[in-house]
Amino acid sequence: MQTNHATPQPQVAIAFLSDPRSHDGAAVTRVDTHAAMVFLAGDRAYKLKRAVRYPYLDYATVEKRRAACLAEWTINRRTAPTLYLGVQAVLRGLDGVLRLAPLSDAVDDAANAEAVDWVVTMRRFPDEALFDRMAERHALTPPLMRRLAERIAAFHAAAEPRRDGGGLAGMRAVVDGNIDALQSFPTLFPADRVARLAERSAAALDRLRAVLGDRRRDGFVRHCHGDLHLRNIVLLDGAPTLFDAIEFDEALAVTDVVYDLAFLLMDLDHRGLRALGDAVLNRYVEETGDVGGLAALPLFLSARAAVRAKVLAAAGEVNPDMAAQADAEARRYLDHAIAALEPPPPRLVAVGGLSGSGKSRLAEELAPDLGAAPGALVLRSDALRKRLWGVAETDRLPPEAYAPDITARVYGGLAERARLALSVGQAVVIDAVCASPDERALFESVAADAAARFDGLWLDAPLDLRAQRVTNRRDDASDATAEVVKRQESYDLGAMRWARLDAGRVASDVLAEALKRLV
Question: Are residues 291 and 416 in the same domain?
Answer without folding.
Answer: no
